[in-house]
Design brief:
Helices cover about 35% and strands about 20% of the residues. The protein has about 425 residues and is an alpha/beta fold.
Length: about 425
Amino acid sequence: MNTKQIWDIIDQQQEDLIRFCCDMIKIPSENPPGDVEAVTKFICDFLDSYHIPYEIVRPVPDRPNILATFGKKGGKRVVFNGHCDVVPAGDPAKWDFPPYSGEIRDGRILGRGTSDMKCGLASSLYAIAMLAKHNAELQGEILYTIVPDEETGGYYGTQWLFEHGYIQGDWGIVPEPTGYDNIEVGQKGNLGIHITMSGRSAHGSLAPYVGQSAVERMMELLQELKVLREIKGEYQGEIAQVMEVSKKAIQDIQKVPGVENCLDHVTVNFGVIQGGTKYNMVADSCEADIDCRVPIGVPGEKVQQKVAEIIEKLGLQDCCKVEYRGGRTGNYCSIQDPLVVSAKRCAKELMDVDLICAYQWASSDTRYFREAGISTIQYGPSNAEGIHTYNETVDVKDVVNACKMYAGMILDLIG
């Protein structure tokens, strides 16, 4: 089977593909709370209908991971990875349509999870199903890991699967939303910082003469931590080239002066601050959670060292405890990798598009693949304006083309 044959098959079956997407959207799988049992059964029923073998592994009872395989064992392996959970829909009154309608309107599929990432998940599964149905002879194997908790960190999904040896492969494809004309070939590292500050309680009317406010200490520290935003990476060669393309892309999307700096600088978001128990008491404790994204080329340890220096400079080392989550640097794969070359070839032949290779300013489960030495890209259908907010949609034509792209890359790599 060649690329043209599988693309013709997908064209002929596109109504069935879109119905599969719409039916998946109709099944709520919000995380939190993380109940994905219904959508897991739906996906397993689909795999059964095409005789694609799979197993379900559960790190904990309510977190099912599906591991599906197809092809020839012993050859090269392409690993697909998708998540079946979605972020909460929020207030239904703020949607222009029911968030789990799965209806089609003006050439778009409507509903929570259309872009992030049920339509990417469904279209990639459908590409594999068409290869299976038409007895495509592969010289390698496909592993598809469908995980339950990407939206809350992936600790019982992709991370757990890697830690327990379930995922090995040569290439990775993650159908996260990118849009039809670009692929993500790198992303920032995710460094979470949790700070606990202690103080001495007293009656509020005696402040600041009696007691020591943990809230004020935290305010002083957080103000100083803004200096982390000055840490940046230095680049040359291919990385510098892709970085410049990525900066232009985010400028075009966000249209905010200076936003391109989020790609090559450390970003700092003071996400949650909690302190004190009552307004007329000097707070004896305060906690803060900070989200840092670390660019390619900057070790997470460098950020941690800077935090320690600031705490020491302020004399807070005896009353301040810092805990880190993550901390790795950014990750990427080469744009010369056969996987990237295949994606560009397919996009040009299918859509006459010169695919943009770009770095992502956030992070995803893809980091686990690259940290394991698996060359991995993100590519998936999306309309960016609805992701993690109201009125999420995806274009029907982009779903069909994404399905063809996945099938084409499979055949290029192990066909």
